[in-house]
């Protein structure tokens, strides 16, 4: 598990595994904002290079995400065939809804 | 390792340490010296008293022999018999003889042992007897002879006229050299024993020394012996107080110098570290100042650029007031990619555009500029909001890019009191009607640059009289660790129930809500109906 420390002290933890179906699961925990989005983006670069067919962001542990975090998810979505979001917390779900991103970043039911 | 100039503290420690060491060494030397001199004096006195104790061993047999001779009228037989135990090799005397005192040419009347050296020296014998006549007790000749040097002792009984004198001689070693036995208490001393009070070589009786004159530390004692005296001079062969006390000053000096060197080195090192630390602090301070200057400069450049990209003036239309407010990010050299535009479409309508390009800094500002100009160009062709957004989406899609942008596009019909609105991922505007405020409800579509061939939908909203429409970017409502709805609610509360002029309303909202901690910049645009 990698801890990404942002300049303002917010931190986001990243944990990556592959499930039985072959999808890559990226679990994000903590807070994701403009202070640490850049670092997260860099740490996700290897995943998108490998070109996994399916990538699931497990957002159950993510307490907060702002538009910079959305930008990171969108950046990944642009390079991977299928990206889905799993179990976002209410604040995160709201950001996705308000920015009209449900179509691009579908939330698993 | 490079050689550096030693620190002042190190040099001071070195000098202080050496001074203290020198003082201690000198004190120890002085104490040692005093102690040695004292011990030597004590030894001289002790040897002197030993010597005094030897006087009777010479005087007593001679006194007895003289009295015997006086009583027996100079009986040679009796004299020889009496003196026999004292004369011979290994005994007190080498020779003993009896002399008549009234003889003008003195010669022995009875002799036991070797013939007296004095008898072969008539000149000296005459002087000696002339000198001693009338005197009492023990007289001592000078050193007699040279081939077999001897010392003579003469005893005359006091008060007896024309009596006899008992005379004895002891041989002296020809070289005068005689060592003190190594086992004795004085084996650590050299000595010289003189006859009389002088210290001339001619009067030297015995010595353990090879070299004269005697130099260095010495002590002397004078022991009376008959009508003469012995002068004893001693000098130490080695330290009397022991080797340890002799080396103590040098031990102190050596240890002191070592400790001083160590202390000076440690002090020097500490002083250097402090100097380095101080230098480092100065350097850091300079770097910080320089950073601050560069930061201010870069921030200034980016902000100037952004302000240059934002519209200089907003259109003026009958029936509405138009106002906008831009707040740069609270900190960081990065400026955001927020922008807005309000353009006149015809006499009745304006098109309001507000957007936010993802990312920060110069790149975001440049992207923002290209999006803004593209949007203005599309608006001139067809001002329908959904059409503008669709074209903008196609425009972005046609090029390589790694950003996205949220854009709100609203066509305002001033006289018709309607707003036609479409959004590419941007937050809905707030419609304020007196004490009532609500966010315009319509379908928000995906941001620009996210999906190919995105569809954008528009909605028409009715606007009440004197209502105010406020469009904004997320810096106004987004706070870390907070659900977005809380921020939206805060904005609605702050914006409703006031009758402030539009300018003041917007600057007040910007001031109160754009959080100081936030890294994002914020733009607000407001349209206020005058009827």
Identify the notable features of this structure and list them briefly:
heterodimer, A: alpha/beta, Transcription Regulator spoIIAA, five-stranded mixed β-sheet, 5 strands, B: 531 residues, alpha+beta, Beta-Lactamase, 8 helices, rod-shaped
Shape of chain B: rod-shaped
**Per CATH, which architecture of the largest domain in chain B?**
2-Layer Sandwich
The residue fraction in helices of chain A comes out at 25-40%
Give a quick account of the main beta sheet of chain A: strands, pairing sense, barrel closure: 5 strands, mixed
Q: How far from one another are the termini of chain B? A: 84 Å
What is the H/E string of chain B?
Answer: HHEEHEEEEEEEHEEEHHEEEEEEEHHE
CATH class of the largest domain in chain B: Alpha Beta
Number of domains of chain A: 1
Number of strands of chain B: 20
User: What's the helix count of chain B?
Assistant: 8
User: In total, how many beta strands of chain A?
Assistant: 5
**Of all protein chain pairs, which has the greatest interface, and how many residues does each chain bring to it?**
A-B, 28 and 32 residues
Overall shape of chain A: it is globular
Bin the helical content of chain B. Answer: 25-40%
Tell me about the largest β-sheet of chain B: 6 strands, mixed
**How many whole angstroms does the radius of gyration of chain B measure?**
65 Å
Placed side by side, the strands forming the largest sheet of chain A appear as 1-2-3-4-5
Instruction: Say what the CATH topology of chain A is.
Output: Transcription Regulator spoIIAA
CATH class wording of chain A: Alpha Beta
Radius of gyration of chain A using CA atoms only:
13 Å
Could you characterize the architecture of this molecule?
- The complex is a heterodimer of chains A (109) and B (531).
- With 109 residues, chain A is of the alpha/beta class.
- Chain A has helices at 37-50, 67-77, 90-98; strands spanning 2-5, 11-18, 24-32, 54-65, 82-86.
- Chain A has a single domain (2-98), classed as STAS domain (Transcription Regulator spoIIAA), CATH 3.30.750.24.
- Chain A has 3 helices and 5 strands, in the order βββαβαβα.
- Chain A has a 5-stranded mixed sheet.
- In chain A, a hairpin with a 5-residue loop joins strand 2 and strand 3 (24-32).
- In chain A, helix 1 (37-50) runs parallel beside helix 2 (67-77).
- With 531 residues, chain B is an alpha+beta fold.
- Chain B has helices at residues 8-72, 76-83, 122-132, 243-309, 361-381, 385-397, 484-495, 502-513; strands at residues 95-100, 108-113, 137-144, 150-156, 164-171, 189-195, 204-207, 219-225, 228-236, 320-327, 337-344, 349-357, 405-413, 418-424, 430-433, 436-439, 444-445, 458-462, 468-472, 522-529.
- In chain B, strand 8 (219-225) and strand 9 (228-236) form a beta hairpin.
- Chain B is rod-shaped.
- The mean pLDDT of chain B is 83.
